[in-house]
Design a protein that fits this description.
The structure holds 2 protein chains of 2 kinds. By secondary structure, chain A is α/β, with parallel strands linked by helices. Chain A folds into 3 domains: 223 residues, no CATH class; 274 residues, no CATH class; 213 residues, no CATH class. Chain A contains 32 helices and 21 strands. In chain A, helix 30 links the parallel strand 18 and strand 19. Chain A starts with a helix and ends in a 6-residue tail after the last helix. About 1% of the residues of chain A have low confidence. Chain B has 2 domains: 243 residues, Alpha-Beta Barrel (TIM Barrel); 60 residues, Alpha-Beta Plaits (2-Layer Sandwich). In chain B, helix 1 packs across helix 3 and helix 4 packs across helix 6. Chain B is globular, with a radius of gyration of 20 Å. The mean pLDDT of chain B is 91. At the A-B interface, helix 26, helix 29 and helix 30 of A face strand 1 and helix 2 of B.
Chain lengths: 800, 312
C-alpha cells in the first residue's frame, strides 16, 4: 500500500472529537486485588500486570504495521484504579466535557465504586495533611495548584485519572527509562538476570525480603509483556490465514513474526526495535508523561544496519516512524475536573529528544533519524509525540532550518533546548559529564537522564499569590487562613531592600512547606505506588533490587518546585522600587489600598504601574530584579532536602497553571487586575508587555541564571510572515542558536496568524486540526478552554 | 567628518531590532525622519517630515477622555470614528507638542521622532551585537532618507564600522552627488530603490523626476564600487506593469551589472493605517499584489540573467 494512503487512513481513525471512557482495566485490577488480598503489594502489582496482559482486549487495525492497543475501546481511556474513584459528579462532568461512557459501563462503575475503597496517593496524603493546618492552610490557599478543598468522600483533591495503557503507576512522574536495555537484551535475558540476582540474596538484613519480592514482581512484569506479545503474534497469524489480499497477508505474517521475536529476544531489525519500543510504551502507560528519550540515538544502529544490508529504505523507515506517531495518538489521558483546568487540551507529554551531542565524545550526534523524525511529524501533522531539538554550537544549520520548516507548518514543534545549559544542570552534584550529556526531555521540558534520574512531585507554586499573602501579614485573603508568618506591615517598609528581605522570608517559609508536602508525597509513593517494570528498566534497575523511588539515582531530583508568575512578581517589585522608593510618587499605603480595591478608583495610578519598566525589553532595572527572584528560588530550594537527603531543584514550566494561578491572585503592582492570567512559562514576558522584539526578549531572559533549573520555558509566537523564505528560517535559526549557546535554556514558537485563531474560536468545527503550542506540548486549539484560547491569541505576535 | 562625530544628531523615529529583510543576517535598522520624496503609497508616512509628528491609534483608544485636559490647544474631543467612540484630534489646532502622550493609559498616542545622537543609536545597536554577529548581520540606515542627514549618516556609518558592524543603507538616492559619495562610500551595502523608469511618471508618483536617482545609482556601482541591490517597491496600478519592470531590469542589466540583484518588494498596507494615525485620510484602494503576479514579474527580471527575489 502507498505510504501516504496508509497514513491518511489510520490518521482518520485517530483524530476524533470524543474519547470513550473504559472500565476494563479497573474491573481486572479490582478482581485481582480481591483474589490476592494476602499478597504483598509488590506481588499484587506484578499479578495485576499479568492479568491485564492476559485479559485486556487486543486488536490489529487495518493498515497497521506496528501493533498493540492500550485500552478496551478504540481511542479509549481506562479508569486508573490507583488515583481514586470517579464519583457520579465527576462522571457527569466528563460527559459534559464531551467524553463518551457506555451506559452499562456507567452502571457497572457505580457498582464497582461501592465495593472499592481506593488506597490512593492523594487519599493517604489527605490523611496526614488534613491534620496539619500548618501545611493544609497553604494547600487550601492554592499555593500549590489546584487548591485543596474541604475533606470530601474521595479524600482530598477531587477526581481521579482515566488514561490509556496497560501498565500501572505511579503515573505522576517525569521519568525516561533506558529503552535500549530491553531492545538489546529481550525479556528472557532480563528475567535471567533478575533470577540470578535473586539467587544471590541472603536473608541477613532488613532489605533482603523486599529485594526478593522485587525480583518476583520484575519477572512477572516481563512475563506480562511476553504474554501480550504472544497474543498479538497469534492474532496476526489467525488474521493472515483469513486474509484474501496477498499484500496484507504478507504484512500480517510479518507482524506475527515480529511479535514472536520481540520483546522476548533482542531486536534484529529496525522494525523489531520499533515494535519492542511500542510494547514498552504500552506497559509504561498510563503515565502523565511518557518521553521517548533520545530515539534518534538508540534506534540509529538498527536503522543503519538495515539500511546497509539493503533490508529497508529511508522511506520505509520514515513510514514506520509515521505509524509510531499515529499509534501514539491512541494513548490519551484525562483527569478530574479540577485538574483538567490546570492541564488544558488533552495534555500529553510524549516528548522525543533529537540532536545534541554524543555523551562520550561531546561531538555533534545528528544522524538520518534526527531528520526522519522531523519528516514524520511533517507528514502526519499530528501533535503527538512532541519533538525537542537539543541545540549546541555545532548543530548543523540545515537541521535548524529543517526544524523551523516543521515549526512553520504550525505544529509548534520542535521546541529548542540548550545542550550546554541542561548539561550544566545535570553535571552538578557529582553526576559524571557523560551521564549529563545524555539528558532528555521528560514532561514538557523538564530534563532528566534516561534511567539515571527521575522526578515525582512538581508542585506549581504561584509566586504573586505569595506576594498577596505577604502584604496581608501572612494571611490568604480569599480563605482568611493564616498561611505564613507576618513578615512586617506592608505600608511601613522604609526601603526596597527592607521590603525584599521581608518578602524573601515569606517565600522561604512557604517553600519550606511546599518541600514538606513533596516529601509526604514521595514517602507515600514509596509505600503504595511500587512499579516493578519502570524500576527494572532504570539504570542498574535489576542489579539494585529496589524500586526506583527508594534509590538515590546518579542525579537526584526526585522532587522539584515549579514557580508560576515569577515574571509578574519581578515586574511588580520593579514598579514598587521605581514609583515608591526611587521617585516617591506613591506610598506603600496607597499601593496597598489600590491593590485591595483592584485599582478601582485608582486608574491613573494603575496606568503608572503598568508603564513601569517590564521584563522582556532588555531593561536591566527590571530584568535584574526578575533574575534576583529566580536566584532566591534556586538558592532556597537547594537548602531544602528531599527524603533521599538531596537538595531540591527548581524547574520552570507553567503548563497552563498561569491561568488558575492568576485566578487565585489579587491585583498586583505590575498593573495587573485581580483574577486575571499571569505570565506563562519561566522566561516569557507578561503577554503584551514586550514591545521591542524577540532579541530584547532573549536579552532579558539571558540575564536569568537558567542553568540551576531543570527546565525553563519561553514562548514566542511568530507570524507566518516572519518565516517565509529559507533565508528567514536561517536567520531565525541563527538567533535561536545564539540564545541557546549564551545562557538561554529553551525556546519554542507558535506560528499562526491571529485571524486564523479567531476564526477557529468562532467555528471550532472547521478547525479541528489546528495545532498550537501551549507549553511543553502541542495540542488542538479547539480543545483549549476559552480563556486559554484567548491567551494564545493575545500572546505578542512578532510579525514584521 | 567632525571630530565630535559621536554627538551628531538626527531625528530618529524607530530603531527596529531583528530586522531580517534589510540586508544580510539579523540587523538593527535605524529609521531617520525626513524624506525628499512623497510616494503616494509611502509605507512610513511618519518619516516624511524631519520634525516629530503625533501618531494616534484609534484601535487602542478606549474613549476614556483623560487626554482631553492635557492639550494646551484644546484640540482633542470625544467623538465617533468608524462607529467607535474615541478621542479625536483636530489636526488644524494640534501643534504636535506631545503634551497628551503621557495622559493616555492605553499608549494610544505617541510622538514619532526623537533627536538622538550617534552614540545613543549605537548603544541600541550594540545591545543586539550577539545576534548580529552570530547571524552575519549588521546595521541598516533607513528612513525617511539618510541622504537628508548627511552629517549624521556619515558619522553613524563610521561609528558602526569602528564598532565592527557591517553597514547598509536603504535609500532613494535623491541627493546631490557629493552627498551620495559622502554617505554611500561608508556603507558596505547599498539597497537602492527604483520606483519608476519613466521620469514623468516618477514625478507623478513621488514628486521628483528620476534622472538624478539613476545617475547616483550608476555612480555608486561604477565609481564608488559598492555592492548594490536594486529594490522595486511593487505597487499594483502604479509601477507593476510589464513595461516598467522590463525597463527596470534592462537598466540594471545594461547600465549596472549582472551582479546586481533585483528585489521586488510587494506593496503592503501598513502605510494606510499609519496615515490614519497621522490624521490623514487617504483612500488609495491599492490591492496587495497576488503571489502569481509577483512571480510573473520576477520571471521578467530573471530573463535578463539577473538574480532576483520577492521581498527583501
Amino acid at each position: 500500500m502507498d505510504t501516504l494512503e496508509r497514513i491518511e487512513k489510520i490518521k482518520r481513525r485517530v483524530i476524533v472529537d470524543r474519547y470513550p471512557i473504559c472500565i476494563e482495566k479497573f474491573r481486572i485490577t479490582l478482581d485481582v486485588r480481591e483474589h490476592s488480598r494476602n499478597d504483598h503489594i509488590m506481588i499484587q502489582r506484578g499479578k495485576i500486570l499479568r492479568a491485564c496482559a492476559e485479559r485486556m482486549p487486543i486488536a490489529i487495525g487495518e493498515e497497521e504495521l506496528i501493533v498493540g492497543i492500550a485500552s478496551s475501546k478504540h481511542m479509549g481511556l481506562e479508569i486508573d484504579p490507583d488515583y481514586g474513584i470517579w464519583p457520579q459528579n465527576e462522571i457527569d462532568s466528563l460527559k459534559a466535557d464531551g467524553y463518551l461512557i457506555d451506559p452499562q459501563d456507567e452502571k457497572d462503575l457505580q457498582e464497582l465504586n461501592k465495593r472499592y475503597q481506593p488506597d490512593t496517593l492523594i487519599g493517604r496524603m489527605g490523611d496526614v495533611l488534613y491534620n496539619e493546618p500548618r501545611i493544609m492552610n497553604m494547600l487550601r490557599a492554592g499555593l500549590i495548584l489546584p487548591p485543596w478543598k474541604d475533606k470530601r468522600s474521595e479524600r482530598g483533591v477531587g477526581g481521579g485519572y482515566a488514561q490509556s495503557g496497560l501498565g500501572l503507576g505511579p503515573s505522576l512522574v517525569l521519568l525516561c527509562v533506558e529503552y535500549d536495555k530491553l531492545i538489546k537484551n529481550g525479556t528472557r535475558e532480563l528475567i535471567r538476570q533478575a533470577r540470578e540476582e535473586q539467587d544471590k540474596i541472603r536473608f541477613s538484613d532488613m532489605e533482603a525480603l523486599d529485594k526478593h519480592r522485587y525480583y518476583d514482581a520484575v519477572v512477572m512484569a516481563f512475563e506480562a509483556m511476553e504474554i501480550l506479545a504472544g497474543r498479538y503474534a497469534a492474532l496476526a497469524r489467525d488474521m493472515a490465514k483469513k486474509e484474501t489480499n496477498p499484500e496484507r497477508r504478507a504484512e500480517l505474517e510479518q507482524i506475527a513474526e515480529t511479535c514472536a521475536r520481540v520483546p522476548m529476544y533482542p531486536a534484529r531489525s529496525f522494525r523489531e526495535a520499533v515494535q519492542c519500543f511500542w510494547f514498552q510504551v504500552l506497559f509504561l502507560s498510563p503515565s502523565t508523561t511518557l518521553p521517548g528519550g533520545r530515539f534518534d540515538q538508540y534506534m540509529y544502529p538498527y536503522y543503519k544496519h538495515d539500511l546497509d544490508a539493503g533490508l529497508i529504505t529511508r522511506e520505509q523507515a520514515t513510514e514506520l516512524l509515521c505509524l509510531l506517531r499515529l499509534k501514539d495518538m491512541e494513548l490519551n489521558r484525562t483527569s478530574g475536573s479540577e485538574l483538567r483546568k490546570k492541564n488544558s487540551g488533552m495534555a500529553k507529554w510524549h516528548n522525543y529528544t533529537i540532536g545534541g551531542v554524543d555523551p562520550v565524545t561531546g561531538e555533534d550526534a545528528t544522524n538520518d533519524l534526527t531528520y526522519m523524525l522531523i519528516d514524520s511529524a511533517m507528514i502526519t501533522k499530528t501533535p503527538h509525540f512532541t519533538l525537542t531539538l537539543r541545540v549546541h554550537e555545532k548543530t548543523p544549520p540545515e537541521l535548524m532550518e529543517k526544524s523551523l520548516e516543521c515549526v512553520r507548518l504550525g505544529l509548534g514543534m520542535p521546541a529548542f533546548v540548550s545542550d550546554g545549559s541542561y548539561t550544566a544542570t545535570f553535571a552538578s552534584r557529582g553526576c559524571p559529564l557523560e551521564f549529563a550529556r545524555d539528558f532528555v526531555m521528560t514532561g514538557c521540558l523538564d530534563g532528566n537522564l534516561p534511567g539515571k534520574s527521575r522526578t515525582g512531585p512538581v508542585p506549581m507554586v504561584t509566586f504573586p499569590l505569595i506576594f498577596d499573602i505577604f502584604r496581608h501579614g501572612g494571611i490568604d485573603v480569599k480563605t482568611g487562613l493564616r498561611v505564613g508568618p507576618n513578615c512586617g506591615s506592608f505600608a511601613d517598609f522604609k526601603s526596597y531592600d527592607e521590603l525584599f528581605a521581608a518578602l524573601s522570608e515569606e517565600i522561604k517559609y512557604i517553600l519550606g512547606l511546599v518541600c514538606e508536602k513533596n516529601n509526604v508525597e514521595l514517602a507515600i509513593t514509596q509505600e503504595i505506588l511500587f512499579d516493578p517494570l519502570r524500576s527494572a528498566l532504570m539504570y542498574q534497575g535489576i542489579e539494585s533490587g529496589k524500586d526506583t523511588w527508594k534509590r538515590v539515582m546518579p542525579f537526584e531530583n526526585c522532587a522539584v518546585v515549579n514557580p508560576i508568575g515569577m515574571v509578574n512578581l519581578g515586574d511588580s517589585l520593579a514598579a514598587i522600587k521605581k514609583l515608591v522608593f526611587d521617585e516617591k510618587k506613591y506610598t506603600l499605603a496607597e499601593l496597598q489600598a489600590a491593590l485591595d480595591a483592584d485599582w478601582a478608583g485608582y486608574e491613573d495610578m494603575q496606568s503608572d504601574f503598568l508603564h513601569a519598566p517590564k521584563y522582556g525589553n532588555d531593561i536591566d532595572y527590571v530584568d535584574n530584579i526578575v533574575s534576583e527572584c529566580y536566584k532566591l528560588l534556586n538558592d532556597t530550594v537547594a537548602g531544602l532536602p528531599n527524603i533521599l537527603g538531596r537538595p531540591t531543584i527548581a524547574t520552570g514550566i507553567s503548563i497552563t497553571s498561569h491561568q488558575p494561578g492568576g485566578q487565585l491572585t489579587g491585583a498586583t503592582p505590575d498593573g495587573r487586575k485581580a483574577g486575571t492570567i499571569l505570565a506563562d512559562g519561566t522566561t516569557s514576558p507578561m503577554h503584551g508587555m514586550d514591545t521591542c522584539g524577540p532579541t530584547c526578549v532573549f536579552k532579558s531572559a539571558m540575564k536569568i541564571d537558567q542553568d540551576p533549573m531543570q527546565a525553563t520555558l519561553l514562548n514566542m509566537k511568530f507570524h507566518t510572515t516572519a518565516l517565509k523564505t529559507s533565508a528567514d528560517l536561517a536567520k531565525l535559526g541563527a538567533m535561536i542558536k545564539a540564545y541557546l549557546t549564551h545562557g538561554g535554556k529553551q525556546v519554542q514558537f507558535n506560528v499562526v496568524d491571529q485571524e486564523t485563531l479567531k476564526k477557529a474560536q468562532e467555528r471550532p468545527e472547521q478547525y479541528r486540526d489546528l495545532v498550537v503550542r501551549v507549553a511543553g506540548y502541542s495540542t488542538y486549539f479547539v480543545t483549549l478552554s476559552k480563556a486559554m484560547q484567548d491567551e494564545v491569541i493575545e500572546r505578542t505576535s512578532m510579525g514584521l | 567628518m567632525t571630530e565630535n562625530y559621536m554627538e551628531v544628531t538626527a531625528p530618529i523615529f524607530n530603531i527596529q531590532s531583528y530586522s531580517i529583510h534589510d540586508g544580510p543576517g539579523i540587523r538593527v535598522t535605524v529609521f531617520i525622519k525626513g524624506c525628499p520624496l512623497r510616494c503616494l503609497w509611502c509605507a512610513n508616512p511618519e518619516s516624511n517630515l524631519a520634525r516629530p509628528q503625533l501618531m494616534t491609534y484609534i484601535a487602542k483608544c478606549t474613549g476614556c477622555g483623560r487626554c482631553l485636559g492635557s492639550c494646551p490647544e484644546k484640540a482633542i474631543s470625544i467623538g465617533s470614528k468608524d462607529g467607535k467612540v474615541a478621542a479625536l484630534t483636530d489636526r488644524t489646532l494640534c501643534t504636535e507638542c506631545g503634551a497628551c502622550i503621557s495622559s493616555c493609559p492605553q499608549e494610544a498616542r505617541e510622538l514619532a521622532g526623537k533627536e538622538m545622537t550617534v552614540r545613543q543609536v549605537l548603544e541600541k545597536v550594540e545591545r543586539d551585537r550577539l545576534f548580529i554577529e552570530t547571524s552575519g548581520g549588521g546595521m541598516t540606515l533607513s528612513g525617511g532618507e539618510c541622504l537628508m542627514h548627511p552629517e549624521f549618516s556619515e558619522a553613524m556609518l563610521h561609528a558602526a564600522h569602528e564598532a565592527g558592524f557591517h553597514t547598509a543603507v536603504e535609500s532613494c538616492s535623491f541627493a546631490p552627488n557629493d552627498v551620495v559619495e559622502r554617505v554611500f562610500s561608508l556603507a558596505d551595502l547599498c539597497l537602492l530603490d527604483i520606483k519608476h523608469m519613466d521620469s514623468i511618471t516618477h514625478k507623478k508618483l513621488t514628486g521628483v523626476p528620476n534622472e538624478l536617482i539613476l545617475d547616483n545609482i550608476r555612480y555608486t556601482y561604477h565609481i564608488l564600487k559598492k555592492q548594490v541591490i536594486v529594490r522595486v517597491p511593487t505597487i499594483p496600478g502604479y509601477n507593476d506593469s510589464e513595461a516598467n519592470i522590463t525597463a527596470t531590469a534592462r537598466f540594471v542589466a545594461q547600465k549596472l551589472g549582472n551582479d546586481v540583484p533585483v528585489h521586488l518588494l510587494p506593496y503592503h498596507r501598513l502605510g494606510e493605517s499609519k496615515n490614519e494615525s497621522l490624521g490623514k485620510d487617504m483612500d488609495l484602494s491599492i490591492e496587495v499584489p497576488s503571489d502569481e503576479h509577483m512571480q510573473w514579474l520576477l520571471e521578467i527580471v530573471k530573463n535578463f540573467g539577473l538574480d532576483g527575489q520577492i521581498g527583501g
